[in-house]
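Lecture 7 notes. Example A: sequence first, then its structure tokens.
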Amino acid sequence: MEELPATAIGLKVNDGIVLASERRLSYGGYVLSKQAKKVHKIGKFLMAGAGIYGDLQTLTRIMNVEIKYYEISTGKPISVHAAAKLLSVILYQYKVMPFISEILFGGVDEKGPQLYVLDPIGSLIEDNYAAVGSGARIAIGVLESEYDPNMNLDIAAQLITKAIKASIERDITSGDGIDLAIMDKKGNYENKFIPY
């Protein structure tokens, strides 16, 4: 499979999770938009991705509805793992005509911060940090050299920003600013935009 345009990065530390992506929306050598948000809050979860932008938007809408449906029908909140597994099943259902996307999905529950990586057909992998998209090869080197699960969320946000900036410098399909989503271990959420 060809690399999917964009760069998205996720990082799990003891204090929470951070997801980030750049904002460029491009196909081939053409930049369609410089304002494409690829990091979303879905209920109490965070999701970021690389790939076909319409597919990412559709998956975000589907997950919003499915999570609400689960919680209404069961009367209890869905766990991070169960929500990630739900996304995995949704992706697998479309394996013949897949969503062209690589997804980072995370959140915090009673088991602590969790980060999952999903491919277009629903493979589900839990990890401490991950990068997807065309800038992933560049970003992962930055993450591997400096990642520490004991770093605080501010340092984690700085590291993820550094990794995205490195990708923007070398990947033509990444650029136009950085969206950061931060969730601490209590579930508090913060969203930031960093011009770059």
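Example B, a different protein, same format:
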Amino acid sequence: MAHLDAETLEALNALLQDARASVEVEVALSNGATERAEREMLVSIGIEEVGLCCLLHEYLEANGAFVTRHVNGIVLNIINTEEYDERLRAFAVHQMDSGKRARDLSSATDDPALGRLLGEVYDAHVRSALWSEQRASQFASSRSLEFQTSAERHAGSNEADESLPTSSGGPREPISSSEPSDEAHDHSEDEGSWSEDSYRPPSARENYPIDDE
């Protein structure tokens, strides 16, 4: 039975939390995968990850050490990422970070069994990180191509509409802004026809003398 100091114990439990988070993400990604090969790959990665979680848990338990029951909260950040390719990249970053943590811990331990286990964690996480990065790039490229094709199709449809003839057979003319058809009427010409009790402008009013009191 190997003696685990407090620092190693904390690092192993943190690594176990990382591995559990990886399982959660892998399950979510496999459920959302649209291609069979991609789904099978994610399921395979998830099965391997579950095995690593069990091995880490068993190692801690066999050495009489505390075993955490928590999952790294980063799982929510990864799953809630909106774009699928960005979700894969976030998962790849998590896998690479936890893999490096396992490698650093492996170089600091004197227990051969723990060293082999941490080496397995490192190899598995690096492989899944590289696959996720590659798949994210493929998905982003296909999405850009689909968007470009859709934009070109839309532009072609607009050009076809503009080339259609009108009902009279002639080409369509651009629609111009409407202009008033009636000219402004000069009301000053009608002032001479006003009646005595009509309203007249101040200049046309008669000046009446002020009543003497």
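Note on Example B: The helical segments are 6-32, 36-62, 74-79, 84-108, 112-163. The mean pLDDT is 81.
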